[in-house]
Amino acid sequence: MPSMTADQIVATSGHAAWMLISASLVLLMTPALALFYGGMSRQKSVLNMMMMSFGTLGVVSVIYVLWGWSMSYGTQSWGGIVANPLEFFGLRNSITDAGGNYLEGASGYANIIDIGFQLTFAVISTALISGALAERVKFSTWLTFTALWSTFVYFPLAHMVWGGGLLAHGETGFAAWLFGVTDGEATIAPIDFAGGTVVHISAGTAALVLALIIGARRTFPMVAARPHNLPLVMLGAALLWFGWFGFNGGSAFAADGLAGLAWLNTTAATAAAILGWLATERLRDGHATSLGAASGVVAGLVTVTPAAGALTPLTALILGVIGGILACLGVGLKYRFGFDDSLDVVGVHLVAGLWGTVGVGLLATDAGWFTGGGMDGFRLFIIQIVIAVVAMIFAAVITAVIAYLLKATMGWRIDEDKEQHGIDTAEHGESAYDTAGPEIR
Q: How far apart are CA 377 and CA 360, in angstroms?
């Protein structure tokens, strides 16, 4: 291999630095999610809600090192669905070569940087699901679920979409099957820039399945479970937005114009989604709320995730404002159909994730059905629907199997008395706020 020029060394170092920063930003998103969900919870359950995110950070990080990277990005693919978990078990043969030199990844910098970046995606994707289960599930069962779900749902989907599997753009994927192959690639390549299918559709679908199988809180929907700390919610949303620049901008895998486009599209879509959500609230309820603003932030971020590198800032605004409106309306589905999606994971992540994944088929720059793509744009729209539906079905079936298995063995629900008096004390022996005053000694 020829040695790099000075300019190439500088460029590669810049890309590596950007990716390390991006990985750190995405890692921040899970504690930010803890703040966001914690603030939305009731006072007696805020610690448990936050612990579900921190527990996920512990479990998924460990198993990603052990077998997650291998299952997601290994070269020994099993039917295009998942890779051999033993090929790179414990990251063997993934960091350095026999001479101790760091292995180069597909983007030109050290492979270990990509591993760290992808680890953070696995963590936040799994943690998102917890918002549907507030105040009623055993912490031990949740931790077990995170290990099983990331192993049997997230890692296979990552392989299928990003690791060269069935939902990728190669010659063996669904797109190639539907519309043919040119020079070894699908004629119409599906678009999932940073995780519409892998992250948000899968997590939102899992949240819906779990809410249905585990059941509602004892007081749902008779008693309104209002957020106990709205400033905490808004702080969490702000930190999620900050971290999302690593999530979307880092998915360019270089410090280049594409990363800049993803950054700007992320800002544009999110800002538009806030306005869309607030306008919907104002027309429907007569008030534009702080909770709505914070939720609009997340809805916009979710919407633009699959499309961040495939839009202009103008079409990002269009995609975002529609995403904010749809997500605002989507949070009402739990009351219409009677499932207790406690913190609106289904309404925000599934609804907005579906719209972002399908909407990019309409609005992708020079390729969407509405933006000059012609018949190929229509085909892109169809393949975006296909990958969204496949991701939903796959996540739903596997999540249901895991949920019923845990229900029959460990059990999901805490006792009714413990739920009534507060899961924080029951599961963790703590309370978030000392309301009893100083102890008399």
A: 10
pLDDT tens-digit map of 342-386:
999 999 999 999 999 999 999 999 999 999 999 999 999 999 999
CA–CA distance, 388 with 432 (Å, rounded to integer): 39
- CB within 8 Å of 375: residues ≥ 6 apart: none
Hey, CA dihedral for 147, 66, 112, 154, is it positive or negative?
negative
Neighbours of 335 (CB within 10 A): 12
| Closest to 227 in 3D by CA, of 291, 294, 293, 135 | 291
3-class DSSP state of 78: strand
User: If DSSP codes are grouped into helix, strand and coil, which group holds residue 188?
Assistant: coil
Confirm if 80 and 173 have CB atoms less than 8 A apart: yes
Q: Is the dihedral of CA 39, 413, 66, 79 positive or negative?
A: negative
How far, in whole angstroms, is CA 87 from its chain's centroid?
26
Beta strands in 179-337 (DSSP E): 181-182, 185-186
- CA dist., res. 358 & res. 390, Å (int): 13
Cα distances (Å, whole numbers) of residue 393 to 123, 152, 350, 396, 399 = 21, 13, 13, 5, 10
Rounded Cα–Cα distance for residues 246 and 111 (Å): 18
SS3 399: helix
Residue 13: predicted pLDDT:
87
Q: Are 357 and 363 in contact (CB under 8 A)?
A: no
Angstrom distance (rounded) from CA 391 to CA 161: 10
pTM (2 d.p.)? 0.94
CATH of domain 14-424: 1.10.3430.10
Average predicted confidence (pLDDT) for the chain: 92
* Burial (Cβ within 10 Å: 0-12, 13-18, ≥19) of residue 388: buried
Tell me how far apart the alpha carbons of residues 181 and 177 are, in angstroms, rounded to a whole number: 8
Reference 163, options 89, 78, 247; nearest CA is 78
The two structure tokens encoding residue 216: 């509602």
**Residue 394 exposure: Cα atoms within 13 Å on the Cβ side:** 27
The H or E element spanning position 158 is: helix 155-162
